[in-house]
Amino acid sequence: MFALPEFLHFIILIGSSLVLCSCQFVGPLLNIDYTMNESTGNYTYNPDGPLVMCSFLPMEYLNCSDPIDRRDISNTSEKGEQGFGCSKWGGERFEDVEKTKVICTALPGIECYGNRTFFRGGIPCIKYNGHYFVTTLMYSVLLGFLGMDRFCLGHTGTAVGKLITLGGCGIWWIIDIILLVTGMLKPADDSSWVPYF
Fold first, then answer.
1. Which of 55, 70, 150, 177 lies most in the core, judged by the most C-beta atoms within 10 Å?
2. What is the spatial distance between Cα 187 and Cα 89, in angstroms, rounded to a whole number?
3. What mean pLDDT comes out for the span 75-102?
4. What is the spatial distance between Cα 104 and Cα 119, in angstroms, rounded to a whole number?
5. CA 132 to CA 11: how far, in whole Å?
6. Inter-axis angle of helices 171-182 and 133-143, nearest 10
7. Based on the number of CB atoms within 10 Å of its own CB, is 139 exposed (0-12), middle (13-18) or buried (19 or more)?
8. Mean pLDDT throughout 92-109?
């Protein structure tokens, strides 16, 4: 059994933690559109101070929009006028991937200096739709003669042909494995392979 002083110490500890947990911070609510700069008060930017420029915040503290699709022929001139958007998605190498600007907003509760909504450049034009290379390769090796790999990638017409001919008597099956490994067989929606991080 507990001795009386230890039991009282335990009750005091539990009671004080309950009091601390039940307290709520009552302070000013931050508005998403709130701008902290010289026009809103006595704020002057000090580069040595703790307040960071909103445009310098890491991506973890930002909510950014998706890149705008500008693949239409009519919109390529619009990209040149506006200076952002993606006219080409994905790429085999890092140098092949097009970069664009997107509109980012600092998350609520993050204090930063300057406009909370701004353009962030250098965002890659890559979209993911759940296509994993290793999973597709396993489908191709194990069930490729039934066209399962092409069904999963969205190539439905050729997948039905592969299913009816049982992988072209095995020839189409082998060719698709080679095409998949060399990077010639990709998802039908031009999305990139999802990386395993």
1. 150
2. 12
3. 75
4. 6
5. 54
6. 170
7. buried
8. 88
3-state secondary structure of 39: helix
Task: Give the pair of three-digit tokens for residue 195.
Answer: 């990386």
Average pLDDT score over the chain: 77
Which pair of tokens denotes residue 125?
Answer: 């034009």
The average pLDDT across 159-164 equals: 92
> Cβ distance 116 to 106 under 8 Å?
yes
pLDDT by residue (tens digit) across 15-51? 544 444 444 333 344 444 455 555 555 567 777 888 8
Integer Cα distance of 155 and 157 in angstroms = 6
Q: Smallest Cα–Cα separation from 101: which of 81, 80, 124?
A: 124
CA distances from 76 to 89, 120, 152 (A): 14, 20, 31
Q: 112 near 106, Cβ under 8 Å?
A: yes
118 in Cβ contact with 91 (< 8 Å): no
pLDDT over threshold 80, residue 114: yes
H-type alpha helices, the chain: 4-22, 76-82, 133-143, 148-153, 156-164, 166-169, 171-182
